[in-house]
Specification:
alpha/beta; 3-stranded parallel β-sheet
């Protein structure tokens, strides 16, 4: 009887503690960081909740989420993490600055990050280094149904994640490599992907 009561009390304390942290984050910490973000104008290293570190660049969209909320798409990533098998091999397509790879790295045996944009690749590599992640592999190519160099339009309006491949070149587009995903993974001897 005592053991059940102690377990119930411990569960209640955990829930109350979570609720207090959640309310503090939602009502005080995040609004304060959101206001501060508008005053930032140069790149800096940010230590997010959970000890994760990122080099952030105002006014980038994903960077703002990491600064304000601690990580981008936390609920989605928590769901993915909870369903990964032990020793998971994950591919992160359009890895951007490494938000997903950094967050999931401790739950994976390997993460293969595909990111064709050279500017973003450097930031991705730096964020992996800042977190001392050695199970993530950066592949500076896009995935496609063909091996080619395609026209790529970089978003310069504060959302590098909105950069994309285009059919026809326009002012400011560049050509970046894409590879057939299945063939490429086979060539680098990745024989299993869990997510």
């Amino acid at each position: 009887m005592m053991d059940r009561q102690e377990t119930g009390e411990a569960t209640l304390l955990r829930r109350v503690s979570w609720l207090i942290r959640h309310v503090y984050q939602q009502r005080i910490a995040q609004p304060r960081r959101s206001r501060r973000w508008g005053d930032l104008d140069k790149s800096f290293v940010h230590r997010a909740r959970g000890g994760l570190r990122f080099r952030l660049q105002p006014p980038e969209h994903i960077d703002r989420f990491i600064y304000v909320e601690g990580i981008y798409e936390r609920r989605f990533l928590d769901l993915v993490k909870s369903h990964l098998p032990s020793g998971a091999v994950v591919i992160d397509v359009g890895a951007n600055i490494g938000n997903h790879a950094v967050y999931l790295s401790d739950a994976c045996a390997e993460i293969h990050c595909f990111e064709p944009n050279p500017t973003v690749v450097e930031r991705l590599r730096e964020n992996l280094r800042l977190n001392e992640i050695d199970n993530a592999h950066v592949h500076p190519v896009g995935l496609s149904d063909q091996n080619a160099e395609l026209h790529f339009a970089v978003d310069h309006d504060g959302n590098l994640g909105a950069s994309h491949f285009v059919e026809e070149p326009t002012a400011g587009t560049t050509r970046l490599p894409v590879v057939v995903g299945d063939d490429y993974l086979r060539a680098i001897e990745v024989h299993r992907v869990d997510s």
